[in-house]
Design goal:
By secondary structure, the chain is α/β, with parallel strands linked by helices. Helix content is 21%, strand content 24%.
Amino acid sequence: MKIRVLGSGGSIPTPRPFCQCPICTQARKEQGRYVRKGQSMYLPEIHALFDMPESIVQLLNEQCIWDVDHIFFSHFHPDHTLGARAIEQRMAERYQPLEPVAVHLPESGLQIGINYYASLLDFYHDEGFCTLDQAPDISIGQYCISRIPLNNGFADGFLITDGTHRVFYCPCHVGDLSFTCDVLHGCDLMILGSGGIRQSWEGETSFYDHVLPVIRQYAPKQTVITHLEEFEQYSYDDYCQLEQTLAEYRLRFAYDGMEIIL
């Protein structure tokens, strides 16, 4: 199984617009792994994209992703959905039309509003740009992708299998993951949102209080931490140091364009 973390940032990218703090200044100077665009993941063997942050068009172009046949949305928050106009940009006014992309929504649906009464995804469906479904399980070739609903009632993680490997992808709201999901024990890989590292707020995911206990509970063979926020004020170098501090957890912190082969 091949996996690419397209973007490893969170709701606030690094560098943040209008910000001249040391972390953002370093990112503008050094570029590369110091820059973090919006959270998204890609499975190249089945051309499947997970979530569409505002920066998704730039990420796709920078990383030479030419084929997207499936899009999975984890939940409705804007840092995971506001790049959805790429569905229109993929299809509209092309010299050679493409097949509609299959868009897979949470069970509760997903309404991205143009204004207070219209749905962008419904419009794209009506225009023939995409198909829509809310199926809990999707089979694509040898892959099976199953939604794992979180306890907050609106977000999902994804269990991804290819007949040989099991990967759990939960880019956000890890604090709402059940501790009694037997199918997650001993996964080959977990890709988890970081939650708050320096601090967290009531009702929000904490890296130390929620994410590390999830790793201890389910004992994956390896873990990648993503959705890394600018306001944590950690640079790429700081995350490398934190990996060493937490070596017992066998975890790595993601960066944009990170490739994983199982």
